[in-house]
Design goal:
Strand content: 15-25%
CATH topology of one domain: Rossmann fold
Number of strands: 14
Order of helices and strands: HHEHEEHEHEHEHEEHHEHEEEEHE
CATH superfamily of one domain: Vaccinia Virus protein VP39
Largest sheet: 8 strands, mixed
Length: 310
C-alpha cells in the first residue's frame, strides 16, 4: 500500500503539532496491548499462565492493562486459548483511558451511547463487577453483533444492549455516560493506514455535526451531579475542543473537570481556523501518538451542576 499524506493534511497538522514526530510515530507499528478481564481472572494469574512465551509490560495508567509481545514474534494474540476463554480483551492502550476517567462504580446506572465493538463497555462492566446497569447502545445491526459477541465472551451480567440512533434517547437520567463518538480516527493511523486515504476536511466537518448532536443528547440524559465523558480517537480540533466548546456555550450548567492519570499529554488547542475555544477546554486530555507511543486520543470529563451560571 502506498503511504501518502495529502498536502491539506500536512498543512493542517504542521500547524497543530510537531508534524515530523507525528508522522514518524503514526507510521510506527502499533505495540499490541491487552486488558485483563477481572470478571474471570486476576492480572497476576493471567500473566503466570502466559509466561514465558508471552512478554508483558504494565501500562502505567491501567492496572489491568499490559503491552504484550511474543518471544518468537507471534502476532495473533487473539487466537490464544486465554483470549477465547475471555480472560483478556485485545484493546489499544489509550482506548482504556475513557472508562478510567468515567470511573463507573458498582451500583451506577451507566449509558454507553456508542458502544460497539465493546472494548470500553466490557472494561466498565469489569469495573462494576456485575453490580448496577450498563445500557450499551449502537445504531447499526452489524455493530451490535460485534458488541454482543464481546459482551458474551467477557461474561458481563449487568449489560443491556440497545439498537437505536444515539440522538433518540430522551427522558432518561443516568449517573454516568460515555460518548466515545464516531470520528475521523486520525489518532489511529498506526492501526489503519486507510485513514490517510479517506481523510478530508469535509468529512471532519460532517462528523463534528454528528458529535455535537450526540454530546447534547447525552448531556440531556445526565443526572445533576453526574459525570459525562466525551472521547474520540481523533486529533482534529473540530471533533474535540470544538465539540466541548459547543457544549459549554449551549449548556450553561455543563462544567469540565480535571483528569489526573500517569501518562504524557499535550496542551489542548486554544484556537483553530479563527475560532477561539472556551478556556475550560484546557481541562481535557489531548494525547498525540508521539506522547506515549500509542494511538492518539482526546478525553473530556464533564459534570452537570444544579445551577446555571451565566
Amino acid at each position: 500500500m502506498k503511504i501518502e499524506f495529502k498536502p491539506a493534511f500536512i498543512e493542517r497538522y504542521e500547524a497543530l503539532t510537531q508534524f515530523k514526530e507525528f508522522k514518524k510515530e503514526s507510521l510506527t507499528p502499533l505495540h499490541k496491548s491487552i486488558r485483563v478481564n477481572t470478571l474471570k481472572i486476576q492480572p497476576k494469574d493471567l500473566i503466570k499462565r502466559m509466561q514465558p512465551t508471552w512478554i508483558t509490560k504494565p501500562i502505567p495508567w491501567c492496572k489491568q492493562g499490559f503491552f504484550i509481545s511474543h518471544k518468537d514474534g507471534r502476532k495473533d494474540i487473539g487466537n490464544t486459548l486465554e483470549s477465547v476463554l475471555g480472560y483478556f480483551h485485545v484493546q489499544e492502550a489509550s482506548s482504556m483511558i475513557p472508562p478510567l476517567v468515567l470511573n463507573p462504580k458498582p451500583g451506577d446506572i451507566v449509558l454507553d451511547l456508542c458502544a460497539s465493538p465493546g472494548s470500553k463497555t466490557t472494561q466498565m462492566a469489569a469495573m462494576m463487577n456485575h453490580k448496577g446497569l450498563i445500557i450499551a447502545n449502537d445504531c447499526k445491526p452489524d455493530r451490535i453483533k460485534a458488541l454482543a459477541i464481546n459482551l458474551q465472551k467477557s461474561g458481563a451480567q449487568n449489560v443491556i444492549t440497545t439498537l437505536r440512533d444515539g440522538n433518540r434517547f430522551s427522558g432518561y437520567k443516568f449517573d454516568k455516560i460515555l460518548v466515545d463518538a464516531p470520528c475521523s480516527g486520525t489518532g489511529t493511523i498506526k492501526k489503519s493506514l486507510k485513514t490517510l486515504s479517506i481523510w478530508n476536511p469535509g468529512m471532519v466537518r460532517r462528523l463534528a455535526h454528528i458529535q455535537k448532536r450526540l454530546i447534547t443528547t447525552a448531556f440531556g440524559n445526565l443526572k445533576v451531579g453526574g459525570t459525562l465523558v466525551y472521547s474520540t480517537c481523533s486529533v482534529e480540533p473540530e471533533e474535540n475542543e470544538g465539540i466541548i466548546d459547543y457544549l459549554l456555550s449551549t449548556q450553561p450548567n455543563a462544567q469540565t473537570m480535571s483528569i489526573n492519570l500517569p501518562l504524557n499529554q499535550s496542551p489542548t488547542i486554544k484556537e483553530f481556523n479563527g475560532t477561539a475555544y472556551n478556556s475550560a477546554v484546557k481541562e481535557s486530555l489531548r494525547i498525540w501518538p508521539q506522547d506515549n507511543h500509542t494511538c492518539g486520543f482526546f478525553i473530556t470529563k464533564i459534570t452537570k451542576s444544579s445551577s446555571i451560571h451565566v
